[in-house]
Design a protein that fits this description.
Radius of gyration: 22 Å
Keywords: Repeat, RNA-binding
Largest sheet: 4 strands, antiparallel
GO molecular function: RNA binding
Number of strands: 17
Pfam families: RRM_1
Helix content: 10-25%
Strand order of the largest sheet: 2-3-1-6
Protein name: RRM domain-containing protein
Family: Belongs to the RRM elav family.
Length: 358
Amino acid sequence: MMANGMDTVVQQNGGATLGQASQEESKTNLIVNYLPQSMTQDEIRSLFSSIGEVESCKLIRDKLTGQSLGYGFVNYHRPEDAEKAINTLNGLRLQNKTIKVSYARPSSEAIKGANLYVSGLPKNMTQQDLENLFSPYGRIITSRILCDNITGLSKGVGFIRFDQRVEAERAIQELNGTIPKGSSEPITVKFANNPSNNNKAIPPLAYLAPQATRRYGGPIHHPTGRFRYIPLSPLSSTGKAMLAINKGLQRYSPLAGDLLANSMLPGNAMNGSGWCIFVYNLAPETEENVLWQLFGPFGAVQSVKVIRDLQTNKCKGFGFVTMTNYDEAVVAIQSLNGYTLGNRVLQVSFKTNKSKAA
DNA sequence: TGCGATT
């Protein structure tokens, strides 16, 4: 039912190395990394509220510029919602990013300044190699090797974030200036630039991929081109729902008559802010995360809504997605209209005002 | 077939 040659399944662990269950009271608080630059706190809240009731939500911003640092925290009331959020939202593609959702560690001084910058790495060293090299000195939270955008080859530079600063300090002492086996050049290991200290226009190294870097470390997954939408991420919690392409790739042809016409109907699509999109033929068990996964890759999504029967709580077969930018909405519609989701062919268009005669 | 009643 899957294995259509065009299906793309993203193996989503990004090499993250968290694993221990030895955490204490962090069963409701999540850290969300690799958020799209433009994503607002409200949009984050909207996304995570699709899982369960959110107690609090905080997008971390640059103290001076107010710009998003690309990560934030979401605290749920219920631990089971937090767990579900990890299961269904981790690896979600939003615009040019793939977000990471994991339990937040308890905030403390000891975990700050535990990020290391490593250079002089042999070009053939993998992320796993890097972790193996550093793992003797502590618990690795994240690791990453920077790759050339075009060639995908290692730049010989990477980052290691330890759980504790003391672990990072020890790794510096033990590894700085040493020559990895099989290499000829010594590596440099030092503390990474701390975004909060450097008030320069230096992007926060630990969390935000630089603008030019469209890629994150890990295996060379091919980021999907904007006009070549390859649905992915088998919808974890909901089960199967493997997305498949059943339709030729479409190009965005400007001024596709119907699209434009519909979107301009009075009082319809553009309600205050954003363009509302109607999605029809959703399965009864559809949840919000399905809509996020479908539309997220195309651009800024403000909100999604699955319409449910009040008695059965099952989806009534349709839903709505509000996107910020017209262009992105058009591409999303043209790309998703006619796609097969499960065994259903979706119909996607700008929302019109059918019933509800104001 | 179809276009949000839980702020």
